[in-house]
Amino acid sequence: METAVKIKNLTIILGGRFKALKNVSLDLPAGKTVGVIGPSGAGKTTLIRGIVGRLHINRGTITVFGEPAGSPDLRKQLSYMTQELSVYPDLTVRENLRYFAIMSGQPRKHVNQTILKSLEAIDMADKAPNLVNSLSGGEKQRVSLAIALIGSPKLLVLDEPTVGLDPVLRGSLWELFARLAGLGHSLIITSHSMDEAERCDDLVLIREGRLIAHSSPAQLRQYTDTKTVEQSFLKLVGEKQ
Amino acid sequence: MSIRRTVATTHRVLNQLRHDPRTLALLFIVPPVLITILKYVFQGEKNTFNHIAPMLLGIFPMIMMFLITSIVTLRERTSGTLDRLMTMPISKLDFILGYAIAFSLLGFLQALVSGVVMLDLLHVTVLGGSLPTVIGAVFASFLGTALGLFISAFARSEFQAVQFMPAFLFPQLLTCGLFVARPQMVKLLQWFADIMPLTYSVDAMKRITTNSAWTGMLTRDLIVVGAFGIAALILGSATIRRRE
Question: Distance (Å) from the C-alpha of residue A219 to the closest C-alpha of chain B?
């Protein structure tokens, strides 16, 4: 199996003292949806900010498609959806997408096409001329996701992309993620919703900066002898304590 | 660096303001209104008003651009948009220059409006003429933009960013020669004024008011203002980090 992200003995210290990740080693597969789950403050965001190259690494290495995380060549191949709504509220949906399309280096003649494709993927093509400020919370969230879809990057790193969305919408987004993985894209998605974890091809469980488990949801359930990922998670957390 | 991305950033910043007509109105209406009020404050002292009004054209654009830029870039830092941009194949210069150009353009328009009101409606006499007056004001707004970009790195919240205006600009305002001629101040303050950029912006406007010719000293003042601006942009780009 091809590897998208290779993490070796990774330690990341935030703000000079807080050990957000402690000696984590992981190989994340390409062409799959990888769920990074764990309670708040576990280090999920730190892990993916490390992968997109936004953090200093204190010890260990992160390589993405064979190159060290954060190297300039990788910037053209990945997209990052932050946990905050990283969109401009005082621009229209289309203006937001156009700006990020240009900044992410889409060729001029493809800009309009890729914007439309992204908006259709999240079912918001009709909202293109609206100001982001005038949209509902869920719609803003989807605009932020649409930006991450621009130019169909090889690796999509999404920090809580479905938080605050209704179940129907969540379902359709997870179908979209699965479809993207089917097309060969690699997705790394954080969540603290355990029912979403069931839908991932591969799961990474972290807690207090340490890796607790890494396997498919089915294997995890089997190994812990439980019916749901949620129960597995609780069981594993309980064992470690 | 890419021209396409710089222009896209300028365009985006201007678009944001286009969707915010109230901010635009304040930007263009406040300075001429203040100058008009001042005219009537100095009703009996026409010469004093004629002396002060052009200096304000070297100060207002700087203060307003400083405030707006520091808030807008602070938002960019806290809302995640800068975070996202920093994972994209852009140069920090695309971002910084895009901002500098957008706000200098606005500064130009603001200077034009204030200049026309001051020269044509309020009949302020500026011996140097209207073009140098506008040029002086554009330099002031460029300086304000650059300082705002830089200072925003030190603010954690919009409350703090707003406080930086009095903290950072008022000392310059008090000592720049607007209230008291600089040679009459305590030596220490004179030295302070000598190393502060606003002093040169105000001096430039003074020279434009009192000299009909473009002097070497005026060029020097504008170079100093521009150099401070460029230095602030470079420092500002150093405060934007790829890795945190």
Answer: 34
Question: Could you give the CA distance from residue B222 to residue B197 in angstroms, rounded to a whole number?
Answer: 10
Chain B contacts in chain A segment 141-180 (CB below 8 A): 147
Euclidean distance between CA atoms B93 and B90, whole angstroms:
8
Of the pLDDT bands very low, low, confident and very high (cuts 50, 70, 90), residue A241 is low
Q: How far apart are the first and last CA of chain B?
A: 22
- How remote is the C-alpha of B156 from its chain's centroid? 22
State pLDDT tens for residues B12-48: 999 999 999 999 999 999 999 999 999 999 988 888 9
Q: A104 to chain B: nearest residue by CA? A: B88
Q: How far apart are CA B114 and CA A239, in angstroms?
A: 71
| Residue B7: its H or E element | helix B3-18
Report the CATH architecture of A1-77+156-215.
3-Layer(aba) Sandwich (3.40)
B230 has pLDDT over 90: yes
Residue ranges per structural domain of chain B: 3-239
User: Which residues belong to CATH 3.40.50.300 in chain A?
Assistant: 1-77+156-215
Residues from chain A that touch B243, judged by Cβ atoms under 8 A, are: 53-56, 70
Kindly report the nearest CA distance between residue A96 and chain B, in angstroms: 8
Q: Nearest-CA distance from B168 to chain A in Å?
A: 27
Establish if B188 touches chain A: CB-CB under 8 angstroms. no
Mean pLDDT for the stretch of residues B140-150: 92
Pairs of residues, one from chain A and one from chain B, whose beta carbons lie less than 8 Å apart? 80
Mean of the pLDDT values across residues A98-115? 95
Q: What is the CA radius of gyration of chain A?
A: 18
Residue A240: its pLDDT value, please? 56
- Cα B186 to Cα B111, B191, B206, distances in angstroms: 33, 9, 21
Contact A87, A96 (CB under 8 A): yes
Partner A contacted by B84 (CB < 8 A): yes
pTM of the entire predicted model: 0.91
> What CA–CA distance (Å, rounded) separates B134 from B111?
6
> Is B22 touching A (CB cutoff 8 A)?
no
* Shortest CA distance from A80: residue in chain B: B84
Interval B157-187: pLDDT, tens: 889 999 999 999 999 999 999 989 999 999 9
* Overall average pLDDT of the B118-146 stretch: 92
> What distance in Å separates residue A123's CA from the closest CA in chain B?
22
**Could you give the CA distance from residue B46 to residue B49 in angstroms, rounded to a whole number?**
5
